[in-house]
From TrEMBL:
Residues 145-377 form the SUF system FeS cluster assembly SufBD core domain. InterPro entries: Fe-S_cluster_assembly_SufBD, SUF_FeS_clus_asmbl_SufBD_core, SUF_FeS_clus_asmbl_SufBD_sf, SUF_FeS_clus_asmbl_SufD. Pfam families: SUFBD_core. GO terms for biological process: iron-sulfur cluster assembly. This is Fe-S cluster assembly protein SufD. The gene is sufD.
């Protein structure tokens, strides 16, 4: 298969700009072969049972490679909304899925690990929103890694037909007993003319697992996409996001957050591709690293010849909490026309000792002061997320990585973590 050949032949970093700055896992033959192992039927773990009782959100729950729960309301189904496993979509929409595969393999955005997922994806969902249909409740796709040495490779395809809208949340939870797992997902958003698609990823894996992510957002004329990504767990995490504005007047927003501790290695690339006239794109990435963790933020704004009257912004900022932690921010521009506005910014700085001292002088213990400064560093980006489920879920995970209760720090008393998520949404690996 072509995609598997490309996985074997491509280097971990395909861009000449970043050949000296990248992190990538060294997958063993056993980890790749584990993707072919037979799917074992399993029950949803008790901490996640509230998901099976959720009748408001269209919800899919994978335990390992087994689809343990799938729900969509009869009302949504009667509107023509599709929420089906990816293998069923391959049969039902054979022509579309074949074209999608061919484009993915020959895409300029193709990279080593996305080709692995295209070659042997073993889970995933297909979502289609019909023309003029607006879905208010987000779709939820939850992956639970509960056994050691599994390889789960997901493909999610979201299609919003003209003048429709929807939101999708993918959650990855790696339980502590699932040592050596590999999780990879390729998510592709198609926002047709005048439509809106939002996609969020909340990654909550253990430090013994590998995380691979590839997200593509394509926006048509006057369409908008929003991508939110978070990396909290995983020994090595490699993420790539490509947001393309093909249609005139298209807009996109990409918000990325990474928090590394221990010896985690995090590599996030977020690109903007302006193709149509009068498009607007924005990427804001923020990271915090402590202990011996390392993060790399990379990204490029590409503006094609026809993309006049474009506005683009790329910001990458990191805070270092410990002397042995490392962070890098590498933004780039490639502009092939005039009459555009393109801006990028980057910064990497140590936590400000004067700010820590200021808080300690007011009776706040040092570790609590450092935590408040780190969460405050993230908050301008977190507050831009307009989905309660994602905004508060992310706050909960960030706070949980330090320990404590999230609602003590933020002022939105009408919304609580428990009301949104029940009991399953907690960071499990904090010190």
């Amino acid at each position: 298969m072509k995609s598997f050949e490309m996985f074997n032949s491509l280097p971990p970093e395909v861009s000449d700009l970043y050949v000296r700055h990248y992190e990538a896992p060294s997958l063993t033959e056993g980890q790749v072969l584990a993707a072919f192992e037979e799917t074992v039927e399993r029950q949803v773990p008790s901490d996640f049972r509230n998901l099976t009782a959720d009748v408001e959100h269209p919800t899919a729950v994978y335990v390992g490679k087994y689809l343990a729960h799938l729900h969509i309301s009869s009302e949504a189904a009667s509107q023509g909304i599709e929420f089906i496993p990816i293998e069923d979509a391959t049969k039902k929409h054979e022509g579309f899925m074949r074209v999608l595969y061919e484009r993915a393999v020959h895409s300029p955005y193709a990279e080593k690990y996305s080709n692995l997922i295209h070659a042997i994806n073993n889970v995933g969902m297909f979502i289609k929103i019909p023309k003029n249909v607006r879905v208010s409740k987000p779709f939820r796709i939850v992956y639970i890694l509960d056994r050691a040495d599994e390889t789960v490779l997901s493909k999610v395809v979201m299609v919003a037909e003209p003048n429709s809208s929807a939101s999708v949340i993918e959650e990855i939870h790696g339980l502590p007993e699932a040592d050596g797992c590999v999780f990879g997902h390729h998510s592709h958003l198609f926002a047709m003319d005048d439509s809106q698609l939002k996609h969020s990823t909340l990654q909550n894996m253990s430090h013994t697992q590998i995380y691979l992510a590839n997200r593509i957002a394509d926006a048509g004329r006057n369409a908008s996409t929003m991508v939110v990504g978070s990396v909290l767990g995983g020994s090595v995490s490699k993420v790539r996001v490509d947001s393309s504005m093909h249609g005139d007047g298209a807009t996109t927003n990409d918000l990325e957050i990474a928090f590394g501790d221990d010896e985690q290695r995090i590599d996030v690339t977020a690109n903007l591709h302006h193709i149509g006239f009068g498009t607007q794109g924005r990427v804001i990435a923020k990271g915090v690293v402590k202990d011996k963790a390392k993060s790399i933020f990379k990204g490029i704004i590409t503006i094609e010849k026809a993309a006049k009257n474009t506005s683009a912004y790329l910001a990458e900022h990191a805070m270092i909490m410990s002397p042995e932690a490392r962070a890098y921010a590498i933004p780039s521009l490639e502009i092939m026309t005039d009459e555009v506005k393109a801006t990028h910014s980057a910064s990497v700085s140590q936590i400000d000792p004067e700010q820590v001292y200021y808080l300690m002088a007011r009776g706040i213990p040092e570790q609590e002061a450092r935590k408040m400064l780190a969460l405050g560093f993230f908050e301008p980006v977190v507050s831009m997320i307009d989905l309660d489920e994602v905004r508060w879920g992310l706050r909960s995970l960030l706070e949980g990585k330090w320990g404590g209760v999230v609602t003590e720090l933020f002022e939105e008393p009408e919304v609580t973590i428990t009301s949104l998520f029940g009991t399953h949404y907690k960071y499990r690996y904090g010190k």
